[in-house]
């Protein structure tokens, strides 16, 4: 099993897994049962993600055990494989909806966008590139080149470019010992490069609460964004942004 991802809906009840047996599987965490098997890749499925799209029905029941509740709301799964493709699957029918082709190496990381970027997917590959895809058209929007080794992890960052209210910065980590930030509106040179001296295998942005010491009493004073990353030397590091 190469990667697992919990559903962002129904309280994380559903679990998606990608495997070296070339399949993606959807599991019910409460019952430990396999709900669906997604077949189509012909090599290792290295990365998976579940769409963040939410139901238009406000009467969501987190205790519902009907997978039809998910599928009927348009939820999908995306997967990246050593077969160099990214595939989109209907979470209810287990049918393949689309296939994205363009990478010239293994696909190591896939991520769905959210909010104004909800119709996009981000991918990173052994071909040293990051690519942005349009889900509806199935076409590549941008390709970002600059890394000098395999890109193992990609994510959408919470940062924005000055004079723009929308989140439009993406982040990538590579075995070239760098973390790079890019403007999704342009495939020009990266915005910023962090040279960290170790190969990056995973990264994630998290919000941590600020605490100040006031007369020996800790007081919550808002929150701030941190970048966490794991490297090939066995360490996990947290950077304040």
Automatic annotation (TrEMBL):
Q: Where are the WD repeats?
A: 1-37, 73-99, 100-143, 144-192
Q: Which domain of life is it from?
A: Eukaryota
Q: Entry's SUPFAM superfamilies?
A: WD40 repeat-like
Pfam families attached here? WD40
Question: Which UniProt keywords are listed?
Answer: Repeat, WD repeat
What the entry lists under Gene3D superfamilies is as follows: YVTN repeat-like/Quinoprotein amine dehydrogenase
Residues making up the signal peptide according to the UniProt record: none
Q: Which PANTHER family match?
A: TRANSCRIPTION INITIATION FACTOR TFIID, TRANSCRIPTION INITIATION FACTOR TFIID SUBUNIT 5
**What is the official name of this protein in its record?**
Uncharacterized protein
Organism name:
Reticulomyxa filosa
């Amino acid at each position: 099993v190469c990667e697992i991802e919990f559903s962002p809906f129904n309280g994380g009840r559903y679990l998606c897994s990608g495997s070296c047996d070339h399949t993606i599987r959807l599991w019910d965490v409460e019952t430990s049962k396999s709900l669906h098997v997604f077949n189509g890749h012909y090599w290792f499925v290295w990365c998976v993600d579940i769409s963040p799209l939410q139901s238009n029905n406000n009467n969501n029941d987190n205790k519902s055990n009907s997978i039809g509740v998910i599928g009927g709301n348009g939820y999908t799964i995306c997967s990246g494989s050593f077969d160099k493709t990214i595939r989109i699957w209907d979470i209810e029918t287990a049918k393949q909806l689309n296939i994205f082709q363009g990478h010239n190496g293994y696909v190591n990381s896939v991520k769905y966008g959210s909010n104004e970027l909800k119709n996009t997917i981000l991918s990173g590959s052994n071909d040293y590139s990051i690519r942005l895809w349009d889900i509806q058209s199935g076409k590549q929007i941008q390709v970002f080149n600059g890394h000098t080794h395999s890109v193992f992890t990609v994510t959408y960052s919470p940062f924005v470019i000055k004079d723009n209210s929308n989140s439009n910065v993406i982040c990538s980590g590579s075995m070239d010992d760098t973390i790079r930030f890019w403007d999704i509106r342009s495939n020009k040179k990266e915005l910023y490069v962090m040279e960290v001296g170790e190969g990056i295998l995973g990264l994630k942005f998290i919000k941590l609460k600020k605490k100040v010491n006031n007369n020996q009493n800790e007081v919550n004073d808002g929150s701030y964004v941190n970048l966490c990353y794991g490297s090939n030397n066995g360490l996990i590091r947290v950077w304040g942004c």
